[in-house]
Specification:
The complex is a heterodimer of chains A (301) and B (325). Chain A is built from eleven helices and four strands, in the order ααααβββααααβααα. Chain A has one domain (5-287): ABC transporter involved in vitamin B12 uptake, BtuC (Orthogonal Bundle), CATH 1.10.3470. The longest helix of chain A is centred in the first third of the chain and has 32 residues, at 5-36. Chain A is globular. Chain A is mainly alpha-helical and 301 residues long. Chain A has helices at residues 5-36, 43-58, 67-93, 103-122, 147-169, 171-181, 183-188, 193-219, 228-241, 246-266, 273-287, and strands spanning 127-128, 137-140, 143-146, 221-222. In chain A, the strands form two sheets. In chain A, strands 1-4 form a two-stranded antiparallel sheet. In chain A, strands 2-3 form a two-stranded antiparallel ribbon. Chain B has 325 residues and is mainly α. Chain B has a domain at 38-246. Chain B has 14 helices and four strands. Chain B has helices at residues 2-25, 32-57, 65-80, 85-107, 112-132, 134-137, 163-185, 188-198, 200-205, 210-236, 246-259, 264-285, 292-296, 298-312, and strands spanning 143-144, 154-155, 158-159, 238-239. In chain B, a hairpin with a 2-residue loop joins strand 2 (154-155) and strand 3. In chain B, helix 11 (246-259) crosses helix 12 (264-285). The longest helix of chain B is centred in the C-terminal third of the chain and has 27 residues, at 210-236. The two termini of chain B are 23 Å apart. The mean pLDDT of chain B is 89. The chains are: A mainly alpha (301), B mainly alpha (325). At the A-B interface, helix 4, helix 9 and helix 11 of A face helix 5, helix 11 and helix 14 of B.
């Protein structure tokens, strides 16, 4: 097969766009896992609600949203998804601390069905997400670059940089790192573990909501069951990078996005792209059982 | 005397009433219940199989439907080549077990949630492969078994094809699955599995071959899925990849967790609740009040009930009782 530089560039750009969205969702999985050692299986619904909420808000700008409008939409979608994550934690997870490890999985599946069907009862069809100011292409040399993709990649990187700064540089970030290292000791040192856990849910939910809006912009439509597939992919990204590790989720997200788009571009049938991504995941885990950046904890006896 | 009544006579009586159900239901407006009970039976076999891995050994498996799919497709493909069902059935079980053993050998070294995501990945790989291997599986169109090449399903000269026939066939296999699980539960293997679940390191230091026993659980459970798949393929006479999504695998895990991990009656109760409740909500309860709107809301109610069940019975609805001996 003849492969031109242009095609490769295009696939890499697609991969980074997709990867940015995956990474934002994966951060929600990995941060909650970091502090609670629990997979939040309802996280993909926060992503969906961010997207559908963004769609609902767009009706306020019938002529197409302005730059200010976009900022408002992002802000509301993020805060909304974050608050919903708090609510989810409060109702479905917090009462289950100390119960068998898999019980939160049951309440997550229940919550997931509930949230999906709330949206289903409101709007049960594919909802068109209108294109915004960011459309068209610009040229770098003889390469075509879409404004929208650049916008999505930049926003996702911007959010990730801020998150990293927050975790590294602030007191609250330090508290989060402490809880994730050892919740019991952190509690003894006077860190309000429950509040830190809630904060983690809020941030994870907010990032998921932002990813939802970006996803809506990218694909041009949203639907009540849209969270499912990206949710699985993002969860996979988090594990690929090493679940519990924040840089791992970012790396895993971009890597999975790239694998998928390169797979779609160069495999004989684009449908095999997910097989390709999962096979790579399995091979990586066989050689690095704790993911790429995860720590292999020695077992205490 | 009452003790004997409770342990023996009462269950026997209930079982007889249950087995007589199709005679009363068939032909009435409640005839669809026979079909739903059959579906519950199939999920019962699957959930008992998954319970071996999830309930006893404590390994989270999010791709169990892959082996159901492998069983169903094995039977579908072989039936089209003229194989009798009674040869397809063991072939399906062996195929599922074979694939699972080969998969298990490398991946069972992974711990906890990493294993979960690998099983999830394998489930997706299986579904996508079935969807795209057109020459064997006819891709998304699926395989229909309504063709002259497929030999009718016969049992000592009787042709089995109605929902009632499959009701009995499925519950016969469910009973066998139950007996196998009961025997395993009280065997050295079952006790070793529980020991691994409680503390893997301690189990290993007591001389339990952890890797081998995990793979035994992994393999046997796939056999259950293979048998259920074979029954499913011949009952529906139609298989498509879309019957075997991640969502189905997740619901199956929910059935085992809801019922009570490692508790055999609990697992079946979990199946009855998760398969039955949405049908129940659809059937009658709400049509009187809200009409169509409430039918649409049934999964909303179902979801809320699942959350409620997790909160009020975190150990499961019918948890495993610790034996006092």
């Amino acid at each position: 097969m003849f492969v031109s530089g242009n095609v490769i560039f295009e696939q890499v750009l697609n991969g980074l766009t997709l990867g940015g969205i995956y990474a934002l969702i994966a951060l929600g999985y990995t941060m909650v896992y970091g502090v609670l050692r629990m997979i939040n299986f309802a996280h993909s619904e926060l992503f969906m609600l961010g997207a559908v909420g963004g769609w609902g808000l767009l009706a306020l700008w019938p002529g197409g949203a302005t730059l200010g409008g976009i900022c408002v939409i992002f802000f509301v979608a993020m805060v909304g998804s974050g608050l919903l994550a708090l609510f989810l934690n409060r109702v479905a997870y917090a009462p289950l601390r100390g119960s068998p490890r898999l019980t939160p999985l049951l309440s997550a599946i229940g919550a997931s069905l509930f949230l999906q069907n709330v949206v289903f009862l409101w709007r049960d069809s594919q909802l068109a997400f209108p294109p915004l100011f960011v459309s068209g292409h610009f040229h770098v040399g003889h390469l075509d670059v879409s404004f929208l993709q650049t916008f999505i990649i930049l926003i996702s990187i911007f959010l990730m940089v801020n998150l990293t700064l927050f975790i590294r540089k602030t007191r609250l970030g330090k508290a989060m790192r402490a809880v994730s290292q050892d919740a019991e000791t952190a509690e003894l040192m006077g860190i309000p573990v429950h509040r830190v856990v809630a904060l983690t849910f809020f941030i994870g939910g907010a990032l998921g909501g932002a990813a939802g809006v970006l996803n809506g912009l990218y694909y041009g439509s949203v639907k009540y069951n849209m969270g499912f597939a990206p949710g699985i992919k993002a969860f996979t990204s988090a594990v690929l990078g090493g679940i519990g590790s924040v840089p791992g989720a970012m790396l895993g997200g971009f890597l999975l996005g790239l694998l998928e788009s390169l797979g779609a571009g160069f495999l004989p049938k684009p449908e095999w792209k997910d097989v390709f991504a999962f096979v790579v995941l399995i091979i990586v885990l066989l050689f690095r059982p704790a993911g790429l950046l995860g720590k292999n904890r020695a077992e205490k006896v | 005397m009452p003790k004997k009544f409770n342990r023996f006579v009462l269950p026997l009586f209930l079982a007889m009433v249950f087995l007589a159900l199709p005679f009363f239901l068939e032909g009435t407006t409640w005839g669809f219940l026979v079909r739903i009970l059959g579906v519950m039976g199939l999920y019962g076999i699957l959930a008992l199989g998954l319970n071996l891995v999830l309930g006893y050994v404590g390994l989270l498996d999010l791709g169990f439907m892959a082996f159901y799919a492998i069983g169903a497709y094995t039977t579908a493909v072989l039936s089209l080549r003229g194989w009798n069902f009674w040869f397809c059935l063991p072939a399906s079980a062996l195929m599922a077990m074979g694939v699972r053993t080969v998969l298990g050998a490398p991946v069972l070294r992974l711990r906890g949630d990493y294993l979960a995501v690998v099983t999830l990945g394998f489930g997706e790989i299986t579904r996508i492969t079935l969807n795209n291997w057109d020459s064997l599986t006819r891709g998304p169109q699926g395989i229909s078994l309504l063709s002259a090449a497929v030999p009718p399903l016969r049992f000592f000269g009787y042709s089995l094809y109605t929902n009632t026939h499959f009701f009995y066939l499925i519950f016969a296999f469910l009973a066998m699955a139950w007996l196998v699980c009961r025997r395993l539960d009280r065997s050295r293997i079952g006790r070793a599995w529980i020991a691994i679940r409680e503390d893997e390191t301690a189990a290993r230091s007591m001389g339990i071959h952890v890797a081998r026993l995990k793979n035994v659980a992994f393999t046997i459970s796939a056999g259950f899925a293979g048998v259920a798949g074979a029954l499913f393929a011949r009952w529906e006479n139609f298989v498509t990849p879309e019957s075997f999504t991640f969502w189905e695998s997740a619901l199956l895990v929910a059935m085992v967790v809801l019922g009570g991990m490692g508790s055999l009656p609990g697992v079946l109760l979990g199946v009855a609740m998760i398969v039955g409740l949405p049908e129940f909500l659809r059937a009658d309860l709400f049509s009187r009040w809200g009409g169509g709107q409430m039918v649409n809301a049934r999964y909303l109610i179902f979801g809320a009930l699942l959350v409620g069940a997790a909160l009020f019975r975190p150990e499961g609805v019918w948890p495993r009782s610790r034996r006092k001996d």
